[in-house]
DNA sequence: CTTATTTGACCATA
DNA sequence: TATGGTCAAATAAG
């Protein structure tokens, strides 16, 4: 119990700030998608650059804020009594369901064919992936599935917007714990929210601990010492489209995506960013070696050779 | 009671 | 066929 320092005020404030920034960056990302209309050679470019800059600003600000949590200590008081800064991964509500798959026995409950699984996979949906310490994004999600994934020890959870049926919102996301760094999640968003977010996250998505239960039974046994964290920083790993190399079906989308990558590159961003390429696996693999501040774990692995995203504590002091 | 989560079955795609 | 995304009955939670 020597690890949790009672910094509450600034931490809480920072937490809110970061949350807002994350959201803002999310909006900027969405805006980016809306700009896919190639109206004019010049006009569109500037718009793209603008959005790219917005995104970059958000990302960098988040990085700084996040890092400051560790390095900075002169953030000045102004603290109220300790609020709920605890996010410890202590949950204690999950019981049962010990073994994942206990199939093959004597159950034959399927009388005839259900109507399950009759869905249309959306191949051409906009998809982007981020890595974050929290899965909270101020949207109301409802879990509709969980799957064991081949090369992961952690299951993948599937969420859809709570107001899917009320407002026809088609946003979904997938959340999966990163094996090299169980404090973080890979969150893949599919589609944008079309619902009114007036009601933000009602009552379900409020505590981070709640999410532990979402991510499977073994999700909460992770001993976090540095968990007093804000846990809100995230960064874009990459956008993906259905089939990158061979996808003859959607040229439009493919075009857009490549375009997208392009302008992000042109934004003076080192080739390290979008990297991620098709193998996110590679990206995360490095994170394990850095247990120092996992805040940068991902970053370092992404931008290991870039000075653009070089974080030095000295610049923070 | 209503609403959310769990969980295996079902199905599309590689 | 293997893998993973979704559905929906059963169950839990509020």
UniProtKB/TrEMBL annotation:
Alphabetized UniProt keyword annotations: DNA-binding, Nucleus, Transcription, Transcription regulation
Q: Which residues lie in Basic and acidic residues bias regions? A: 98-117
Q: What SUPFAM superfamilies does this protein's entry cite? A: WRKY DNA-binding domain
Domain WRKY: from-to ranges: 136-193
Region Disordered: start-end pairs: 92-124
Q: Which GO terms describe its biological process?
A: defense response to bacterium; regulation of brassinosteroid mediated signaling pathway; regulation of DNA-templated transcription; systemic acquired resistance, salicylic acid mediated signaling pathway
Q: Name one GO cellular component term.
A: nucleus
Q: Where in the cell is it found?
A: Nucleus
PROSITE patterns from the UniProt entry: WRKY
Q: What's an example of a GO molecular-function annotation for this chain?
A: DNA-binding transcription factor activity
Segments traversing the membrane: none
One protein family per Pfam: WRKY
Gene3D superfamilies reported in the protein's UniProt record: WRKY domain
| Protein name from the UniProt record | Transcription factor
């Amino acid at each position: 119990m020597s690890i949790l320092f009672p910094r509450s005020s600034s931490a809480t404030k920072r937490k809110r700030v970061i949350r807002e920034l994350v959201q803002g960056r999310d909006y900027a990302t969405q805006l980016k998608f809306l700009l896919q209309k190639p109206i004019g050679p010049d006009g569109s470019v500037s718009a793209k650059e603008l959005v790219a800059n917005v995104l970059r600003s958000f990302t960098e600000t988040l990085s700084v804020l996040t890092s400051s949590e560790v390095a900075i200590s002169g953030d000045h008081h102004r603290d109220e009594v300790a609020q709920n800064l605890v996010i410890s991964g202590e949950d204690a509500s999950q019981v049962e369901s010990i073994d994942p798959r206990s199939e093959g026995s004597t159950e034959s409950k399927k009388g005839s064919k259900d109507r399950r699984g009759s869905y249309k996979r959306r191949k051409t949906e906009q998809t982007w992936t981020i890595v974050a310490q929290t899965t909270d994004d101020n949207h109301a999600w409802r879990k509709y599935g969980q799957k064991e994934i081949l090369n992961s020890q952690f299951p993948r959870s599937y969420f859809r917007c709570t107001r899917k049926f009320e407002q026809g919102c088609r946003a979904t996301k997938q959340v999966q714990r990163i094996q090299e760094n169980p404090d973080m999640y890979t969150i893949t968003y599919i589609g944008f929210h079309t619902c009114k977010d007036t009601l933000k996250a009602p009552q379900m998505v409020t505590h981070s601990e709640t999410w532990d239960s979402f991510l499977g039974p073994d999700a909460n046994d992770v001993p976090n010492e540095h968990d007093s964290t804000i846990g809100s920083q995230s960064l874009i790993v990459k956008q993906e489209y259905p089939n990158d190399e061979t996808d003859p079906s959607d040229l439009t989308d493919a075009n857009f995506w490549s375009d997208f990558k392009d302008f992000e590159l042109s934004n003076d961003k080192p080739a390290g960013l979008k990297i991620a390429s098709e193998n996110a696996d590679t990206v995360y693999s490095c994170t394990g070696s850095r247990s120092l501040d996992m805040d940068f774990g991902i970053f370092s692995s992404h931008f290991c050779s870039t000075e653009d995203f070089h974080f030095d504590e000295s610049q923070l002091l």
